[in-house]
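hiii, so i know i said id send this last week but things got crazy w the move. better late than never?? heres the sequnce for the chain we talked about at the cafe, plus the structure i predicted for it. fair warning i was half asleep when i ran it
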Amino acid sequence: MRKKHFLKSLFLLTILGLFSNKGLNALSYSDLITNLSDIFYSFLDENEGQTSFRSLLIPFGGRSESLGGAYTGLCDDINFLQYNAGAGAVQKESQIALFHNMWIADSKMETIAATTRFKNIPHLSLGGFVSCFYLPFTEYNIFGDRVAASYYSETLAAINFSYNFLAGYDFKGFSLGANLKTAWRGMPNYTDNNTNEVINNSGLAQSGLAFMGDLGLLLQFNFLKFYYSRDPNVRIGFSAQNLGVSLTGWGQQVVLDDPLPSLLSAGISVKLVKPVTLSLEFQQPINLQNLSTYLKPYIASGISLEFTNFLSVLGGFAIKGGNPRFSAGFEFEVAKVRFNFNYTLDFTSSFSPLNKLSLSLKLKLGDKGRSIIDKQVDEYYQQGLIYYAEADYQAAIEVWKEALKLNKRFDPAKLGIQSAQYQIDMFQLIKESLLLD
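okay and structure toks below
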């Protein structure tokens, strides 16, 4: 156990440069946490923790958590459902995913999610997810006897839709989307202090029901791209999350609950070279019940190293409150099933060597034939270029029109038709001028 403490301390010291004059051997794990807490003390927020449905801030796990939560401006898999509702329309494949996130104090969160795009309406996507956060609840009487055992839970269900507007070959358009969400907080029943018997429906008065929505926008374009790919290398995302209200007091008088943990987020991801993706994130919490309440922002960063198309290593760093979070994970794919294993070191939650682990399994269901259509469009375009080089401009136009039937936003074919038509018109003008002479 001491070896694990030493290795973790050494790793963190290397990153942050917290070498002490007393030497590494004099630093204990608790000393290291204290030093880190002192450094990030200014990030503490006195208004933090005053919201309901705190599980809305817990990541599904998997890829997004491995990147430290810096995901609003990336959103290249089904985790977009939690970070940027507008990114569904740019997903390459339909996906079904399972997430298991082992959080703190025996709490866990389970999630199932799905998203798809349509063959006939390729720029429209639909999706949704159901997640459940749960924590064992055991009640003891004054004598230390267990009198009740159940679970505290928060269950969330959401549907997503998004559409990519004005997408073309050069300009990739902008993708807009929204989540419609509802959540239920389930409080367990408790006992009567006098009789030690469970009071039926006693937990219902403290249970809660929430209605909320998310809005998202994702932009894609090319900038300083040093490799060949039809995919853009820069993404910028904006998101507003958990906009709504929560109600409590069921079984009695229903009243407005504490505000939801609403967020405004902005993020960017850049891939200058093909194997490396960098992402940055800025999140500003807001209190919709009192907009004048100032909450300190969150910041996060992530990096993905793609060794092959089926193996990646990821890392992230985030500051949420007064303590930093480090995350690391790796992904691998086997037969269209992509696995992610993530470890997060979070000083806000644990003082033990084992902090947070999350697992995800993502089943890639294909693109409903869109890649086949893209291949056919490319073949038509290449054939048109051959005809154009042979000065058979009319044949080139006909082939490029076939390409546009399959993809009306394929800009190279449009430009080719304009150029070929210009050549035909020029020859016609020359021919008419010769006849006049």
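btw The CA atoms of residues 190 and 198 lie 5 Å apart. thought thatd interest u
miss u guys!!
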